[in-house]
Amino acid sequence: MHKVIFDTDPGVDDAMALLFLVRHPEIDLVGITTTFGNASIETTTRNALYLKQQWEIDAPVSKGSGDKYAAGEEIHPFPNHIHGDDGLGNIGVPDVVDVPLDPRTAQQFIIETVKAHPGEITLVAVGRMTNLANALKEAPEIAGLVKEVVIMGGAFDVPGNVTPAAEANIHGDAAAADAVMTAPWKVVVVGLDVTLKTAMSRATLAALAAKGGAAMQLLDRVSQFYIDFYDDEVTDSMVVHDTCACVYVVARELFTTRSGSIRVMTDSVGEGKTLQKPDGMRFGPSVWDGLPSQLACVDVDAENVMKLVEETLIRH
Question: Which residue in 50, 156, 268, 278 could disulfide with 260, CB within 3.0 to 4.6 Å?
């Protein structure tokens, strides 16, 4: 069993990723921490509570920071045109969800849970890296206690999706992402290099909704607005970005990785660009010296990833 803390900004593809984690038999979801990104921190936290309620999820929800890692940095506009004004495809999520929050902040929840289960917790982060960076800053010792950090974000050998240089999750808090990439823990980056190869059609979602009960029926409704947005890129389908990171946890053999230190550009036209120095490349003395070697996913068996996603989503 993989003990997972899911750091998320629900978000339509976040919702699919959450249901995958809930329904996969090898995942023990021990907590959900929220971050801003697809919507404000208030909206993403409300959405996490709503999904917890609707899907009867036992894991606690803890609210993260609504500010970027570097004090005073301006937050980029939220992508309402992708995820809807309510963050969940404009399905009419109630303004207030009567489900209690965990009293701890997201960074406190991460720190305390990691320390309570040394070497066992996998952090799956599919939004801004702010909570992880804040947890590291408050308790740097957790880097040696976390089993693994699996991130949906970044673009190494392909263009970004919010600028030519950057993918949205990394661009949204580049300083936090750089802090996470360069910390002395094991990081795997599941970015656009692989996620853009994975898509689920509207027809497949409808078929899964017919088999997967009320939970899948809700996911199908949530996803329609998102599919409409993606229609120019993947016809009548949605890219399953965040779910790819969850699949990596249980089926890493479906991914091809490249090892090497990773940095994130934090300003100018390259803000949010992820760069990797592959292991074995030699340069003169530079800011790349002494950094931990991390894994970047560069290819994927998309057919079998999607087969696993579909099989998992309809489990009861």
Answer: 278
Bridge partners for 256 per DSSP: 299
Choosing from 7, 9, 173, 193, the catalytic residue is: 9
Which DSSP symbol is given to 289?
T
Is 241 a catalytic site residue?
A: yes
CA distance 76 to 172: 6
User: Among 251, 235, 237, 266, which residue's Cα sits nearest to residue 297?
Assistant: 251
Catalytic residue among 178, 220, 241, 242: 241
For residue 140, report the phi and psi dihedrals to the nearest 5 degrees. Answer: -60, -20
Q: Which of 92, 90, 95 is nearest to 226 (CA)?
A: 90
Looking at this protein, which amino acid is placed at residue 264?
A: V
The first and second tokens of residue 97, run together, are 């969800």
Q: How many CB atoms lie within 10 A of CB 177?
A: 33
Domains of the chain: 2-313 (3.90.245.10)
Please report where in the chains the tokens 């305390």 appear, as a residue: 112
Task: Encode the chain (316 residues) as per-residue pLDDT tens digits.
Answer: 999 999 999 999 999 999 999 999 999 999 999 999 999 999 999 999 999 999 999 999 999 999 999 988 999 999 998 999 999 999 999 999 999 999 999 999 999 999 999 999 999 999 999 999 999 999 999 999 999 999 999 999 999 999 999 999 999 999 999 999 999 999 999 999 999 999 999 999 999 999 999 999 999 999 999 999 877 666 889 999 999 999 999 999 999 999 999 999 999 999 999 999 999 998 888 889 999 999 999 999 999 999 999 999 999 7
User: First CA to last CA across the chain, in angstroms?
Assistant: 18
Assess contact for 242 and 150: CB atoms under 8 A: no
Does the active-site annotation cover 231? no
Distance of CA 179 to the CA centre of its chain: 16
